[in-house]
Specification:
single chain; alpha/beta; TIM Barrel; Rossmann fold; Immunoglobulin-like; six-stranded parallel beta sheet; 29 strands; about 30% helix; binds beta-D-glucopyranose
Length: about 750
């Protein structure tokens, strides 16, 4: 037995080394699969949480983690487990990560086939769980840059710092669309538009994966959460989604389809249900669409404990074992179990009973081994600790700062109150987000919920610290409120009376998933009260919003002279905000979602015309606080001379739209030029407009640039009644800024 396994490993390695083409490499993988026992195969499909192989109670935030040799041995050698994830809920040093993962990989080397373990974590806005990592703007903030290069850089830094922690698999990016503002994971998305989300998602994917996954500074990405997860009807996480397939295809599938085409190799599955079918039981989505139609070559991993939940939560399986059969037959390749080993036992029994075909198991295992191979884990599962000199470096901090600056979105600037003067101003800084990095980072920061401040780096500035540094220690800070409790509002109001300007930084209690479900989209009453009380002093207010979703500010918006959307900006957020406040940087972020004004008026920018009908039989029903794509600058831009290359196009053509953009203000600045196109009439009610192209440009004062977009007519289509993409000939209107022009699409020549 021993010598035959040595022979298999040698044979496999030699064949792989000699394999030149993808076909040959896949054949080598299949050869390895053919030599595996059923138990070894099922083990590969199993993913456990790190706690499972560590000493002590699971998820103990206070104890240092140590591998329990007996538990590791049982997981890897007895149950042949192929993947481990997560951390014991808190952040570890690089050394600790190396220590833990080296032990895990060494154990895998003692197994019969020496198949390496694939280790994964949620590096959501940087290497979440590694001390000293570069924590960048969360995805929603990155989307506000409208600059895919910045998303690519963020991906590159995260990949580097994860590999510097011996971790090769990142459960990111989230490609769900943020169209339900109540949803607790809104900030994890790239916003409401599929074109913008796809562009940012593809760029981030490129940053994670590069051109060669096996290089020591790249990780394999995991697209989340396949698919349609982000539109829970109730707004609560993991509750039912009702979504016709045509909508799913036209919006929610788009970023996934594009990323898969760009080489994404793992997806994580939607934890809730669509139209009554749980994501993990959905053969149509997982097999027919993901694997057959999109030709996805990687593997699908479940979300946390989600196979068991088919039995205990979704109630589509009368037992856990039935749940395993349903999920694996639907197309699940790996189960994030994550804390028990029954999954293996049930799956082995199911194969022996003929309820799960061995061909399905072989398919899942070869997909998993393919990804391990592409990552280079068979040759080198851990790279040299000392090869990561750039970890947490100044170079990364600068890129992080740039991303934060470009994310910041100036929503309002009455009487040009911003930028502030550095001299002769008494500035009071207050609010829950004013003097802590915790609300600036949000969830997935050092811990899952990001609520623990003890891991915050000491060398990164809060908003107050950055403002104070800028004006020579003359700023005053008073807390005001916590997230939902009064602390010293009275004292703050008294101090406000002595100030020239008050910067109030409201914040949302960090959180994600179920713990961050909310009952009310309105901002916490106590924080609104702080703004109202300060406004009553008559002192000008600059409002900074550090929030994970658009909490309603309808009552206080008129009370603020300036409003800045800070999203969750990460560790350079304080510094970036102070630079914007004092005009050392010019804001250029644009909202990647529609900021609502009322709970009863939650619409997206691409709503239907019927949604505009109001109570007076007019068409004025849309009431947004701030529209999608909105964001001011310290300079002004105009758009003029919109031209379209022709008036009539056939279905195979491309339309070329150009416009002159001019900086008519006194400062240099960046502007996002946004091309929207409306299909005037269609067999499925058309949106009032759809974003079809965008570009961020930089202009000096008085400079004009002609911006030209070329869009294929086929990309102006929609998904019709029969779930097919189609462009119907007819009238279209192109819009940029205040300019618009019509054109016609006619049938293609035969
Ligand atoms: C989340 C996923 C995450 C996974 C692993 C789940 O609860 O829904 O987004 O990747 O946990 O941490």
């Amino acid at each position: 037995m021993r010598s035959s396994s040595v022979f298999i490993v040698l044979l496999f390695c030699t064949i792989l080394a000699l394999s030149q083409t993808i076909d040959e490499q896949k054949k080598a993988i299949n050869l390895l699969v053919s030599k595996m026992t059923l138990e070894e195969k099922v083990g590969q499909m199993t993913q456990l949480t790190l706690d499972y192989v560590c000493k002590g109670a699971a998820f103990d935030d206070h104890k240092e983690m140590f591998i329990d040799p007996a538990r590791l041995d049982s997981a890897v050698r007895i149950h042949h487990v192929g993947s481990i994830l997560n951390t014991g809920t808190y952040t570890l040093s690089r050394n600790k990560w190396y220590e833990l993962i080296t032990q895990i990989q060494n154990k895998a080397q003692t197994t019969r086939l020496k198949i390496p373990i694939i280790y994964g974590v949620d590096g959501i806005h940087g290497a979440t769980y590694t001390q000293g990592s570069t924590l960048m703007p969360q995805q929603l903030a990155l989307a506000a840059t409208w600059e895919p290069n910045l998303a690519e850089q963020a991906g590159t830094i995260t990949a580097y710092e994860l590999r510097a922690s011996a971790i090769p698999w990142n459960f990111s990016p989230v490609l769900d669309l943020g169209r339900q503002p109540l949803w607790s994971r809104f900030f994890e998305t790239f916003g409401e538009d599929p074109l913008l989300a796809s562009a940012m998602g593809n760029a981030m994917l490129k940053g994670y994966q590069g051109n060669d996954l096996s290089s020591p500074d790249r990780v394999v990405a995991c697209l989340k959460h396949f698919v349609g997860y982000s539109l829970p009807f109730s707004g609560k996480d993991r509750t039912p989604v009702l979504m016709p397939e045509r909508l799913l295809r036209e919006y929610y599938l788009v970023p996934f389809a594009q990323a898969i085409q760009q080489g994404a190799l793992t997806v994580m599955v939607h934890s809730g249900e669509i139209n009554g079918t749980p994501g993990h039981a959905n053969y149509h989505l997982l097999t027919e669409i993901l694997k057959d139609e999109l030709k996805f070559e990687g593997f699908a991993v479940t979300d946390w404990e989600d196979i068991k939940y088919l039995h205990t939560v979704h109630k589509v399986a009368p037992s856990y074992k039935d749940a395993v059969a349903i999920a694996i037959n639907a197309g699940i390749d790996m189960s994030m179990v994550p804390s028990d080993i029954q999954f293996c036992k049930y799956l082995i029994e199911l194969v022996k009973e003929g309820r799960v075909a061995i061909s399905r198991i072989d398919d899942a295992v070869s997909r998993i081994l393919w990804v391990k191979y592409k990552l280079g884990l068979f040759t080198k599962s851990i790279h040299d600790f000392n090869d990561y000199k750039k970890f947490g470096s100044e170079e990364f901090a600068k890129l992080n700062y740039n991303a934060a600056v470009e994310s910041i979105t100036l929503l309002k600037n009455e009487s040009q109150i911003l930028p502030l003067n550095k001299t002769n101003q008494k500035v009071l800084v207050t609010g829950v987000a004013s003097n802590s990095l915790t609300p600036l980072n949000g969830a997935w920061t050092h811990t899952w919920q990001g609520r623990e401040s003890k891991y915050n780096p000491k060398n990164k500035k809060t908003i107050f610290q950055a403002i104070n540094d800028k004006i020579g220690n003359k700023a005053v800070w008073i807390e005001g409120t916590s997230y939902d409790q009064d602390i010293n509002t009275e004292k703050t109001v008294e101090e406000a009376k002595k100030s020239d300007i008050v910067v109030i930084c409201l914040g949302e209690y960090p959180g994600t998933e179920k713990p961050a479900d909310i009952e009310d989209l309105n901002f916490d009453k106590i924080q609104l009260e702080l703004v109202k009380r300060i406004a009553a002093t008559g002192k000008p207010i600059v409002l900074v919003l550090a929030e994970a979703r658009p909490r309603l500010i309808t009552e206080i918006e008129p009370l603020a002279k300036a409003i800045i959307m800070a999203y969750l900006l990460g560790n350079e957020g304080g510094t970036a905000l102070a630079d914007i406040l004092f005009g050392e940087a010019n804001p250029s972020g644009k909202l990647p979602f529609t900021y609502p004004k009322y709970t009863g008026a939650l619409t997206t920018y691409d709503h239907k015309f019927s949604e505009t009908r109001d109570t007076k039989f007019g068409f004025d029903a849309i009431k947004h606080q701030f529209p999608f794509g909105h964001g001011l600058s310290y300079t002004q831009f105009t758009t003029a001379n919109l031209t379209i290359d022709k008036t009539s196009f056939n279905l195979l053509d491309s339309v070329t739209v150009s416009v002159d953009v001019k900086n008519i203000g006194a400062k240099s600045g960046k502007e996002v030029v946004q091309l929207y196109i409306r299909d005037e009439f269609a067999s499925i009610t058309p949106s009032i407009k759809r974003l079809r192209a965008f570009k961020k440009i930089f202009l000096h004062p008085n400079e004009t640039q002609k911006v030209t977009f070329k869009v294929a007519i086929k990309d102006l289509g929609f998904v019709n009644y029969y779930n097919q993409w189609i462009v119907e000939p007819g009238d279209f209107t192109a819009m940029i800024g205040n300019e618009q022009k019509g054109f016609v699409v006619v049938q293609s020549p035969k």
